[in-house]
Amino acid sequence: MKTKIYNLFMILFIISITISCSDKKKNTEQxxxxxxxxxxxxxxxxxxxxxxxxxxxxxxxxxGDNALLFDHDNVVFTCGLDRIISRIDQSQHxxxxxxxxxIGVPTDCVCPYNVDMKISEFIQxxxxxxxxxxxxxxxxxxxHYEFDIEYRNDLDTIFVxxxxxxxx
Length: 168
Fold this sequence. Notes:
This protein is mainly beta. It has one helix at 2-23, and strands at 37-43, 55-63, 67-78, 81-89, 95-104, 110-120, 127-136, 143-150, 156-163.
């Protein structure tokens, strides 16, 4: 009888050690990080009155840590916005889909703004397809731009998005 109790005790002891050791395994899996993310975003207030013929541009410049400065100048939104937010969605690793959303009260006037952001996690030598959408909160995109780049340490380029036309 003592042998059966001893054997049962030993089996329970081994099972309890096995269970407690398996609970203490380190989780070596890293959480998936979004390949590209905005790590810095700021925008100007209305930069003032402007005339038809001024250019809306996107300036891309590579900086350290495989990041990219993205400066969208003379982007036109309504005058009464509170802030501009930027979202990055990515369906494929080489496609960067940026949506600039203005949040605030719609008005009858428009105003140029400068939107500057730092986007991280680019790979030297890789080619990327950018899709830029500009929209007012809760509405479909007002404008859509696409272009391609090859990320290099010396990347410093300006894309002319278009000429600002104030005529309706």
